[in-house]
């Protein structure tokens, strides 16, 4: 199958390679001349045979919106656009409407797999009409991990369902990572335990907590046993926030996901204003000692 691919970053570049290895013809566009196959989006459209399928794999937000608007101007009726980035699901309806006004189809695809997707395959969660999903299915089949279709791929529902599902997926991921990390800290704090890394390595087989994330933590600890080469500062890319916001809208309790999101916020504070206020209160009502900051800081 022929596919246009917009965005050849860490994931897009590997996706192009996996698809080419699977026998597909992929024409990629990226602003970086060293990786792009065509000079611009007009060149991408010209290089593809109608009806075209173009997969957008760029950062969420304005970049995605601007790319879809630009594609609407160079594609034709009967073509199809797939948004495979981490867009918020609420953006999918307007994008589908914008493209649909020109007879262009739209599919939203949540993609999981990171830098390992090239070799291991990508977990795919997609939203859109049955007909549009069927059109892109040969691409999905090559990108997804080997095995039964239902293990690694889901047509989650209508437009927006793919990105909503990926949002929840990433919220769950936040909570899982925090749980594994808290377990590591407890193991490290107990002198009886000689090697937290060995424990996590042992958990990769036969235990109920085994998972790919847990295996990756065992790998990270083997490469850097005390995690001395990195700081605890942890960013969030948005999906965890969206998950908590949607949980509030839906009145669904997600305390684990919410706590993991707030833990990331806490990681960015060199000196917590909250805990300084707690220390001040303990001093005020109980006369408890506080640690004073010296003039030198």
Account of the 3D structure:
The protein has 297 residues and is α/β, with parallel strands linked by helices. The chain folds into two domains: 2-157, Rossmann fold, CATH 3.40.50.720; 167-267, N-(1-d-carboxylethyl)-l-norvaline Dehydrogenase, domain 2 (Orthogonal Bundle), CATH 1.10.1040. It is 49% helix and 12% strand. It contains twelve helices and seven strands. Helix 6 (130-143) links the parallel strand 6 (123-127) and strand 7. The chain is elongated. Residues 162-296 form the 6-phosphogluconate dehydrogenase C-terminal domain. InterPro entries: 6-PGluconate_DH-like_C_sf, 6DGDH_YqeC, 6PGD_dom2, 6PGDH_C, 6PGDH_NADP-bd, NAD(P)-bd_dom_sf, Pgluconate_DH. This is Decarboxylating 6-phosphogluconate dehydrogenase. Belongs to the 6-phosphogluconate dehydrogenase family.
Task: Give keywords.
297 residues, alpha/beta, 7-stranded mixed β-sheet, 12 helices, 7 strands, 12% strand
End-to-end gap: 63 Å
The number of distinct structural domains comes to 2
Q: According to CATH, what is the topology of the largest domain?
A: Rossmann fold
Give the uncertain stretches in residue-range form.
Answer: none
Can you give me a brief rundown of this structure?
With 297 residues, this protein is an alpha/beta fold. It is built from twelve helices and seven strands.
Set out the fold topology.
Layout: E1 2-6, H1 10-21, E2 25-29, H2 41-47, E3 53-56, H3 62-74, E4 80-83, H4 92-100, E5 105-112, H5 117-120, E6 123-127, H6 130-143, E7 153-157, H7 161-189, H8 196-202, H9 212-223, H10 239-250, H11 255-267, H12 273-286
Helix pairs in contact: 7-10, 7-11, 8-9
Family: Belongs to the 6-phosphogluconate dehydrogenase family.
Domain 6-phosphogluconate dehydrogenase C-terminal: 162-296
Protein name: Decarboxylating 6-phosphogluconate dehydrogenase
């Amino acid at each position: 199958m022929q596919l246009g691919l917009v965005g050849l970053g860490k994931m897009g570049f590997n996706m192009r390679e996996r698809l080419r290895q699977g026998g597909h013809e992929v024409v990629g566009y990226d602003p970086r001349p060293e990786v792009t196959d065509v000079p611009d989006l007009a060149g991408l459209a010209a290089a593809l045979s109608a009806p075209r399928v173009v997969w957008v794999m760029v950062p969420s937000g304005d970049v995605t919106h601007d790319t879809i608007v630009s594609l609407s101007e160079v594609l034709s009726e009967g073509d199809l656009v797939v948004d495979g980035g981490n867009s918020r699901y609420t953006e999918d309806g307007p994008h589908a409407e914008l493209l649909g006004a020109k007879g262009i189809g739209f599919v939203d695809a949540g993609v999981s797999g990171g830098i390992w997707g090239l070799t291991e395959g990508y977990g795919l969660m997609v939203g859109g009409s049955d007909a549009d999903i069927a059109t892109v299915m040969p691409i999905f089949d090559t990108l997804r991990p080997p095995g039964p279709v239902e293990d690694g791929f889901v047509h989650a529902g209508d437009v927006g369902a793919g990105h909503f599902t990926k949002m929840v997926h990433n919220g769950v991921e936040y909570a899982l990572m925090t749980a594994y990390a808290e377990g590591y800290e407890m193991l490290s704090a107990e002198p009886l335990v000689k090697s937290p890394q060995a424990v996590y390595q042992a958990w990769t087989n036969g235990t109920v907590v085994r998972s790919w994330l847990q295996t990756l933590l065992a790998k990270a600890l083997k490469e850097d046993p005390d995690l001395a080469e990195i700081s605890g500062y942890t960013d969030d890319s948005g999906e965890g926030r969206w998950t908590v916001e949607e949980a509030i809208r839906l009145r669904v309790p997600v305390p684990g996901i919410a706590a993991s999101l707030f833990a990331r916020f806490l990681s960015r504070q060199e000196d917590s204003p909250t805990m300084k206020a707690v220390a001040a209160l303990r001093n005020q009502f109980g006369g408890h000692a506080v640690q004073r900051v010296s003039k030198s800081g």
